[in-house]
Amino acid sequence: MDAAHMHTVKTNGITLACRTWGPPDAPPVLLLHCRGADGADWTTVARRLAAPPHPRRVYAPDLRGHGRSDWPGDYALETMCEDVRALLDALGADGADVVGHSLGGIVACLLAQRHPGVVRRLVLEDVPLPVPLDPPRAPAERPEGELPFDWAMIRATDGQRNAPDPMWLDHMGRITMPTLVIAGGHTSPIPQDEVAHLAELVPGARLETLDAGHLVHATRPEEFLALLAPFLDA
Q: Which of 13, 49, 54 is nearest to 31 (CA)?
């Protein structure tokens, strides 16, 4: 089952595109991509997780404003969280292991805080602490030509990165499911002390560092999977 099944799901008032691998009756895993990417970014990891001898049912949606999902203009991260919650309902999954990278990791944190019953295990890949940036991130200029994501999403998420809702940080202690935090090391643009602090705020979270930069699962897939698979199987 190397090839993904690409389909769309009506959820939370929009249409999300979702790639799926693995047997329908296998334990579900939800993979949430970083900003500017889409579900295809997880292909290497997803194929391995869906393969025997311990296959999983792997879902990798395009978050709103990305790829083949709708670009509705509303890009609050809380709304992205509710998209994912509704997606799991639409897929008939009572719960799933959730893996989030960067922006997808913040969405995964919100999902774990708001709907802990649907997150069995949580993996956060190089996720920044949701604290105000100092100095704030300056507005970026839109590149010329067509983009695989909505530029309005970039502006909206920059604003939330500069001034996140304080509740995101305050509610980290509500994340009580087994949690693995994977840091990208000194070459990542994400401050690694923030990643470590996030791990400290999540009760019982385990912190591991792979010196791979921000794109850990893409740069060092074998080592990433060597941490991920045993954690999910535990």
A: 49
Tokens of 151: 């530029």
Query: What tens digit of pLDDT does each residue of 181-203 get?
Result: 999 999 999 999 999 999 999 99
**Closest to 231 measured CA to CA, from 177, 194, 150:** 177
- Record: fold of 5-233: Rossmann fold (3.40.50)
Q: Is the pLDDT reported for residue 10 higher than 80? A: yes
CA distance 217 to 219: 6
What the block records as the tokens of 198 is: 């996030």
pLDDT at 140: 85
Let me know the angle formed at the C-alpha of 49 by 47 and 50, rounded to the nearest 5 degrees. Answer: 65
Parallel, antiparallel, or unpaired for β 119-125 and 179-183? parallel
pLDDT per residue as tens digits for the range 76-95: 999 999 999 999 999 999 89
Neighbours of 51 (CB within 10 A): 14
pTM over 0.85: yes
Nearest-angstrom CA–CA distance, 225 and 196: 20
Q: What is the largest CA-CA distance in the chain?
A: 49
